[in-house]
Amino acid sequence: MRKQKHLILSTAIILGLSGVFASTTSANTDLDRIQAERDTIQSEIAKQNEQLTDLEKEIQQINEQIERVEQAIKDNEKMIKDTEEAIAVAESEIAELEEEIAILEEQIEARFDLLKDRAVSYHQNNSNSSFLEVVFGSTSFSNFIERVVAMTKIAEADNAIIEQLEEDQAKIEEARAEVATKLGELEDKQVELEGMKHHIIEQQEQNEALKAEVEEKVELAEAERDGLTAQDSELAARAADIEARQNQVVDRSDSVSLTSASNTTADTSSNTNSQSAVSTGNGNIQIAMDAGRKYIGNSVYVFGGGRSASDIANGRFDCSGFVAWAMRQAGYQVPASTDGLRFAGQQIAAGDRQPGDLVFFNTYKTDGHVGIYLGNNKFIGSQSSTGVAIADMSSGYWKNTFSGRVVRVH
Hints:
The structure is a single chain. The protein has a 6-stranded antiparallel β-sheet with strand order 3-8-4-5-6-7. It has a two-stranded parallel ribbon with strand order 1-2. Helix content is 67%, strand content 9%. By secondary structure, it is α+β, with helices and mostly antiparallel strands. It folds into 2 domains: 30-244, Helix Hairpins; 284-408, endopeptidase domain like (from Nostoc punctiforme) (endopeptidase fold (from Nostoc punctiforme)). The chain is elongated, with a radius of gyration of 45 Å. The protein has helices at 2-125, 131-136, 141-249, 284-291, 309-313, 319-329, 338-342, 396-401; strands spanning 300-301, 316-317, 346-348, 358-361, 369-375, 378-383, 387-392, 402-408. A hairpin with a 2-residue loop joins strand 5 and strand 6. Helix 1 (2-125) packs antiparallel against helix 3 (141-249) and helix 4 (284-291) crosses helix 6. Mean pLDDT is 74; it is low at 250-283.
């Protein structure tokens, strides 16, 4: 009987323990699954943290570029102001010249009227007689001398007026030529001014785009990291709940380690700004083609830039200043203006362009922008919106504005 009771009791204990063990096994399975999910999420959080670290470096570089562009905008705005002042001075000088011309024309008209009056008076007083008739109509030798002297004085007075008229006329022609020159200079300044305004708008737009890019990247990265952190916290809470229930079922304390089992290294691929361009150039011209690559991503477009050691050290170029600098690195001396570069070498058909040739674009004026052709429809230049950069002329803006002018200086 005691054996039977003992058997029943043992069976009950075994059955009870089996239930406990089954419950514990199920809980452990849930914990393992939750831990696996947490490991995956924590790996993703680690990746996001790495991306945020990389992003902080990128943001620092972008902010440095924003500062460079903002300084360039200030300098360019000063150049615009100086140009506007120069235009105002030129317009004032032209107005003064035109006023001077008007006064001279009035003087010429007055002298001309005087000569007409003298001619009419002479004609009336001498009864339609010619000079010879007046002279030879004298009644005596003394009368003859008097008439000759009188006629000479009249002629001399008329000649003085005529000479003054001629001098005034010459002054007018000179003033008009000066006006024409100043008007030409004024027109050039106004064209350049429009170009400057066009460039500065592009620079301002670039800065706004850079700032927006930074904000968007930060927001996306932080939102994704925060979302993953929230998921991890929820899984941790579920794991804690399961452990609490386990402790209630089994009178023992199991310490469940929820430490991360694997460390996943994020595979990052470096993104470079360099373009793969076919370069068949050799010798010195290759130096010119490669010289500006160090400025990609850390330079700005500044009107008149690239002509001083300070500008070059700080990556401050306009398009022609950059081309002239790059060519000097290869031993080629070329003008530092787009107008000068247009005829600095041999004119080449657009279809025959080769790496190292200069290519021109109709931006704010005909051939208003220039760069160095790299091959494969790529060129390097100081662009107003990016500073020194490699651009594609096979489509979009640069294809549409390519003027067809190609100049070879090598």
